[in-house]
């Protein structure tokens, strides 16, 4: 039975699904049909679809043949305090891919997703931010919330310590960090770099149009699902593609943007040091996009 | 079995065999998309549908038969089923 040897660890709302579907198309890469198995991260509340039994988890990769790279993607591994160590114990030679983004944009995008999915019920992002101190104590958590840890938006979006955990555990050469802005600006170049990092043919041409790539993924997923045990199929949620699409949302107010820019400034500076890159534009007090 | 009969049989599977809360009146238009903007099926349900179709029509659908164009609408699925049935040896 093949074990996974690369992991897309997050973060949510940073392009992980797109990158995963691009990687899936590569003939030297086998991807689990079940995105978000969330096998690692024992400090996280189990999400719907989580697979916590190793035997079942390994079934996700049973269809892998000669592909040198076998992997999965679970966006909360980056946030988890324990996942880096647990993945390292399971796959000491594993390769880690993490996507990160301007934390203010990421936090707002996560709030918007949760408002659609039912994890969030507060009617504005401002109110959700104000509720964080109480939510840390387990208060003001919606009755229907399926992942309360995700509601502390300003904690989820502090990437520096999260990234550092993986760099420390796996070594810089085994951690590939992708900045969302780069992925959007030059998807093909980011894809090639990621393939090189994984040690597979970087010249492979994938379908990078998100809509067409999603269609490809659906049919490939169906082919793999036919050979997947029913127990896993029953756990799978395919609504993520629909839910994760970026629905229109009002621009973030200048006041909240400025507040979050100040709040994240130190973390972003630290993250920039880790990446060897100036990310100060993320926390400069200018109008933010969506 | 002609194409109308195939479509009616596929409709029966969707309404009566699959747990997807569809009614016959949802399926009046054979050009309705199976996924977004149509019946809203997901991939897990589609795998179930494929299994029911294989058993019901006594055909085997290879991976090559699973592509975006054939699994687009009720009528495209019916066309695929008809083509596959024509390939089966007479029994």
Structural overview:
The complex is a heterodimer of chains A (290) and B (91). Chain A has 290 residues and is α/β, with parallel strands linked by helices. Chain A contains 14 helices and 5 strands. Chain A has helices at residues 16-24, 54-59, 83-90, 103-117, 125-130, 132-136, 153-156, 159-170, 180-185, 187-198, 210-225, 230-233, 239-244, 254-275, and strands spanning 6-10, 29-31, 69-73, 95-100, 175-179. In chain A, helix 1 crosses helix 11 (210-225) and helix 8 runs parallel beside helix 14 (254-275). The longest helix of chain A has 22 residues, at 254-275. With 91 residues, chain B is mainly α. In chain B, 48% of the residues lie in helices and 0% in strands. Chain B has helices at 3-17, 43-57, 74-87. Chain B is globular. The two termini of chain B are 14 Å apart. The A-B interface holds A 215-216, 218-219, 221-223, 225-226, 233-234, 236, 238-239, 242 and B 35-36, 42-44, 46-47, 50, 63, 66-68, 71.
What are the defining features of this structure?
heterodimer, A: 290 residues, alpha/beta, 5-stranded parallel sheet, 14 helices, globular, B: 91 residues, mainly alpha, 48% helix
Could you say which structural class the secondary elements and strand pairing of chain B correspond to?
A: mainly alpha
Poorly predicted ranges of chain B (pLDDT <50, ≥5 residues)?
A: none
Radius of gyration of chain A: 18 Å
Rg value of chain B = 12 Å
Oligomer: heterodimer
Strand portion of chain A: 5-15%
Shape of chain B: globular
Runs of chain A in which pLDDT lies below 50 for 5 or more consecutive residues are none
The tally of strands of chain A reads 5
**Number of helices in the DSSP assignment of chain A:** 14
């Amino acid at each position: 039975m093949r074990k996974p040897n690369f992991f897309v660890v997050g973060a949510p709302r940073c392009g992980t699904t797109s990158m995963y579907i691009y990687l899936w198309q590569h003939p030297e890469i086998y991807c689990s049909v079940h995105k978000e198995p969330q096998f690692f991260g024992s400090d996280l509340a189990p999400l719907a679809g989580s697979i916590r039994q190793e035997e079942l988890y390994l079934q996700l990769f049973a269809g892998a043949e000669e592909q040198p790279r076998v992997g999965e993607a679970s966006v909360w591994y980056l946030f988890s305090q324990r996942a880096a160590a647990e993945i390292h114990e399971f796959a000491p030679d594993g390769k880690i891919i993490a996507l990160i983004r301007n934390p203010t944009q990421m936090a707002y995008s996560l709030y918007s997703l949760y408002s659609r999915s039912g994890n969030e019920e507060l009617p504005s992002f401002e109110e959700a931010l104000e509720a964080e101190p109480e939510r840390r104590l387990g208060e003001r958590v919606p009755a229907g919330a399926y992942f309360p840890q995700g509601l502390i938006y300003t904690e989820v979006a502090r990437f520096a310590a999260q990234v550092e955990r993986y760099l420390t555990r796996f070594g810089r050469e085994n951690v590939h960090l992708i900045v969302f802005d780069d992925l959007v600006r030059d998807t093909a170049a980011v894809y090639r770099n990621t393939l090189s990092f994984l040690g597979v043919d970087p010249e492979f041409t994938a379908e990078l149009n998100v809509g067409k790539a999603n269609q490809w993924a659906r049919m490939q997923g169906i082919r793999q699902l036919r050979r997947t045990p029913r127990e896993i199929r029953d756990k799978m949620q395919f609504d993520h593609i629909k839910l994760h699409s970026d629905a229109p949302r009002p621009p973030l107010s200048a006041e909240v943007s400025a507040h979050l820019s100040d709040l994240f400034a130190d973390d972003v500076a630290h993250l920039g040091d880790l990446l060897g890159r100036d990310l100060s534009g993320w926390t400069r007090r200018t109008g933010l996009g969506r | 079995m002609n194409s109308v009969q195939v479509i009616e049989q596929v409709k029966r599977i969707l309404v009566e065999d699959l747990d997807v809360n569809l009614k016959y009146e949802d399926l009046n238009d054979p050009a309705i998309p199976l996924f977004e903007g149509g019946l809203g099926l997901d991939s897990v349900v589609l795998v179930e549908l494929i299994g029911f179709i294989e058993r019901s029509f006594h055909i085997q659908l290879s991976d090559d038969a699973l592509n975006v164009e054939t699994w687009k609408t009720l009528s495209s699925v019916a066309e695929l089923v008809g083509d596959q049935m024509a390939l089966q040896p007479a029994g």
